């Protein structure tokens, strides 16, 4: 402890004692010194100063001990006489340790709870200390659990904990009457502070109010801008708090947003939804196509996407998309239910909403508690039509991109548009823009289809290409259906040719339309052409029978020759024997008799003669 660390007032007093105090700080102080200790140190030094001025071991010093002991002294906010023995202890401590010896000792139980529950309850309860401490532990756990599980307010926790304390006391066999015990069990905010009940709201926020927890509790990592335009593209879907009606029906508005992390430049696609509908993968693909085909956008090096279903299934497609551009690529999905995991786009939408507040129908986030224009009148919905609303939202995006941000922000006083232009100029950035067909190929869903009559059926519609003409009915092909709706084509990869080929939707013609007949002729010509192509690889003179005959072993079995060799029976040229002639004549006569005397009824029946002949 150094003299320079003493308060100025104390140093002034010490200056007068320099002849007396030669080395006042021989022993360092190893603990924290409270203000009240300094005050009492100064008071003790002031009281013994007359004694210190007298030489040691003289009658003068002994006399001064008696004089000071008989005089009233102001110390510890009161006026008292200090016993001579105490004065001698102070002087001895000062002479041995300097000013440190005059510091009063701290309590040995400093920092330890000296109250079990409350002073009133501790003083009046008729239970042993061990039982009291057990009750205190149960009571504290009870109060903390109410806050951690349900977020109960401190005031209500204290009320319920007071009743619990009364119950626990009676359960521990206290002999006090309930009417006497209840006043003793009252708890106040000091008890709550002593047991740090407020800290247990963290558990409640973590389990049941994640938004509040994420907004207020976890530390934030500060991030700068990405060095390269389109080096990182952040995607998210945002809800727009505008009340919209179209034809008397409510319409919900969603924004599919894309943020360039190098400049905070924003692209937005509005999506208008009726009841029961939501943003799907096809909507995200359509929105992303606008960014990738934008002259100052293109294919990013990395995507950082929301964890929603409309994004997560597209991660693989986005990786294939960057393969087309031949660049290193990563896709990162944000941590579920973590707004802080979406980069700067969440905070950006808060800025963007400040612009949207100027539009009619703004309701500020709660459709059940609409803001009012005048007393008793709710906000009128947006009635200019969806086309005008789309244009208003795009204008709001342009306002955001062109409005300078604060000097202390990451853009350092520039607008997102100015920052993007500066980054393009500094890095020599050139966008990687895919054509529409390539984008649809990459952003597609893979499936298998069976070929039927040279076509494949996708969503109930027939698609055909010449690549299918050489396939048999029943062959399966891999089909890639674009996520963007109504593209009029799909892509296939046949089992024979590994290349992916575009096949178009077959049109439907009315009866009598000659264009349909012409197309039918073209389809049949394509099949015939495929057959001719196959025919180039065959020999028309080859016969399966001839090949089988040539492959067969025509030699007889290796066995002894029989006495009579079996030959074919040829009855075509042999003369008829007499026996055969007689049989033929008898058959002719029977046929003649049957014609002359036809038989009636069933001649085999014997019912009339009772079975007798």
Automatic annotation (TrEMBL):
SUPFAM superfamilies: Ribonuclease H-like
Designated name of the protein: Transposase
Record's compositionally biased regions (Basic and acidic residues): 586-597, 604-613
Region described as Disordered: 572-613
Every Integrase catalytic domain range: 223-424
Origin species: Pseudotabrizicola algicola
Gene Ontology biological process terms, A to Z: DNA integration
GO MF terms held by the record: nucleic acid binding
């Amino acid at each position: 402890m150094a003299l320079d660390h003493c308060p100025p007032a104390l140093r002034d007093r010490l200056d007068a004692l320099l002849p007396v105090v030669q080395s006042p700080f021989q022993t360092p102080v190893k603990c924290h010194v409270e203000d009240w200790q300094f005050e009492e140190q100064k008071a003790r030094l002031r009281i013994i100063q007359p004694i210190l001025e007298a030489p040691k071991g003289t009658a003068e010093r002994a006399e001064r001990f008696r004089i000071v002991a008989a005089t009233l002294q102001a110390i510890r906010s009161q006026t008292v006489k200090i016993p001579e023995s105490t004065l001698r202890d102070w002087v001895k401590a000062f002479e041995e340790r300097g000013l440190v010896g005059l510091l009063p000792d701290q309590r040995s139980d400093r920092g330890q709870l000296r109250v079990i529950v409350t002073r009133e309850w501790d003083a009046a309860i008729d239970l042993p200390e061990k039982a009291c401490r057990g009750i205190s532990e149960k009571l504290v756990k009870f109060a903390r659990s109410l806050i951690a599980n349900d977020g109960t307010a401190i005031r209500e926790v204290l009320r319920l904990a007071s009743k619990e304390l009364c119950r626990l006391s009676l359960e521990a066999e206290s002999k006090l009457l309930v009417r006497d015990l209840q006043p003793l069990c009252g708890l106040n905010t000091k008890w709550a502070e002593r047991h740090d009940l407020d800290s247990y709201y963290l558990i409640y926020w973590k389990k049941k109010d994640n938004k509040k927890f994420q907004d207020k509790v976890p530390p934030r990592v500060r991030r700068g801008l990405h060095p390269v335009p389109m080096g990182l593209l952040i995607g998210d879907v945002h809800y727009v708090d505008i009340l919209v009606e179209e034809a008397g029906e409510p319409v919900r508005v969603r924004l599919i947003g894309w943020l360039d992390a190098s400049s905070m430049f924003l692209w937005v696609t509005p999506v208008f939804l009726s009841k029961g509908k939501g943003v799907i993968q096809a909507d995200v693909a359509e929105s992303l196509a606008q960014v990738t085909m934008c002259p100052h956008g293109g294919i990013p090096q990395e995507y950082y996407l929301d964890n929603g279903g409309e994004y997560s299934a597209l991660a693989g497609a986005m990786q294939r998309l960057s393969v087309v551009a031949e660049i290193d690529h990563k896709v990162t999905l944000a941590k579920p239910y973590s707004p802080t995991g979406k980069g700067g786009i969440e905070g950006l939408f808060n800025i963007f909403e400040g612009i949207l507040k100027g539009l009619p129908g703004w309701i500020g986030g709660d459709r059940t508690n609409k803001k009012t224009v005048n007393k008793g009148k709710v906000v009128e919905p947006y009635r200019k039509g969806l086309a005008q609303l789309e244009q208003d939202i795009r204008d709001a995006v342009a306002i955001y991109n062109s409005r300078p941000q604060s000097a202390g922000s990451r853009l350092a006083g520039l607008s997102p548009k100015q920052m993007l232009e500066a980054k393009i100029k500094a890095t020599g950035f050139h966008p990687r823009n895919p054509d529409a067909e390539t984008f649809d190929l990459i952003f597609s869903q893979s499936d298998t289809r069976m070929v039927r009559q040279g076509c494949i059926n996708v969503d109930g519609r027939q698609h055909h290409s010449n690549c299918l003409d050489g396939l048999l009915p029943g062959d399966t092909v891999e089909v890639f259906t674009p996520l963007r709706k109504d593209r009029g084509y799909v892509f296939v990869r046949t089992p024979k040719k590994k290349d992916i080929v575009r096949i178009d939707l077959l049109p439907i013609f009315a009866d009598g339309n000659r264009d349909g007949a012409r197309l039918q002729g073209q389809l049949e010509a394509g099949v015939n052409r495929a057959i001719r192509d196959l025919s180039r690889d065959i020999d028309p003179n080859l016969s399966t029978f001839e090949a089988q005959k040539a492959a067969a072993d025509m030699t007889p079995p290796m066995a002894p020759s029989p006495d009579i060799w079996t030959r074919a029976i040829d009855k075509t040229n042999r003369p008829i024997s007499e026996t055969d002639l007689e049989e033929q004549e008898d058959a002719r006569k029977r046929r003649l008799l049957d014609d002359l005397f036809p038989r009636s009824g069933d001649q085999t029946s014997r019912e009339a003669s009772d079975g007798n002949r």
